[in-house]
Amino acid sequence: MKLDFIHDIQSAYRKVVDSMSKPGFITNLKDEADKVDLEAGCFSSTLVLAMMLLDTEVTFKVISNREEEITRWMNQLTYSKTDEVEKADFVFVLQDVSQSMFEQTFKQAKIGSLLDPHESATVIIETDEIRNGNQYVLTGPGIEGENYAKISIKGNWVEIREQKNAEYPMGVDLIFVDKSHNLLCLPRTTQISIEGGSLDGVCGS
């Protein structure tokens, strides 16, 4: 593999931290993803994130029609072990899953506890497109005033996220990545509202 497991993974890490600290700020992993020269059944940028996030101290779960194949790749590359959705530290929801499966998985992801809020899940979600747009209005720490984002993903995920993150500091953090390797992070502290004010039937275009 052409990917440098030190230099390139550190570069990806800095981009994720930058996006997580400034919710709504879109970064791009194309430089790193282009160096992944294997077909693992997921976006190459998703594989970069797996190599950045996973190690022997954490667990993960892949939600995909190709779960067995992709899980095997991630395990071989990171030595991390898989676990059930309810227990996994990192949950990878890939583009080929149905809306209902995505929502079910999101509901099951762990939120930590009041004593150990860090024992929560980070959910990595593949989607067609991430771009600047006024579909979602973002406010909260790291944002001056408001930020805006458009994410092509269907379902009532915003409402589910609101329920999951209702008892701060418990909650889940989200990382979205698209086909062009754009990346956007939504930490649990970010508040999301829908342009027009409705949480029902939300979908991307």
Automatic annotation (TrEMBL):
<dbReference type="Pfam" id="PF05845">
    <property type="entry name" value="PhnH"/>
</dbReference>
<dbReference type="GO" id="GO:0061693">
    <property type="term" value="F:alpha-D-ribose 1-methylphosphonate 5-triphosphate synthase activity"/>
</dbReference>
<dbReference type="InterPro" id="IPR038058">
    <property type="entry name" value="PhnH-like_sp"/>
</dbReference>
<protein>
    <submittedName>
        <fullName>Alpha-D-ribose 1-methylphosphonate 5-triphosphate synthase subunit PhnH</fullName>
        <ecNumber>2.7.8.37</ecNumber>
    </submittedName>
</protein>
<dbReference type="InterPro" id="IPR008772">
    <property type="entry name" value="Phosphonate_metab_PhnH"/>
</dbReference>
<keyword id="KW-0808">Transferase</keyword>
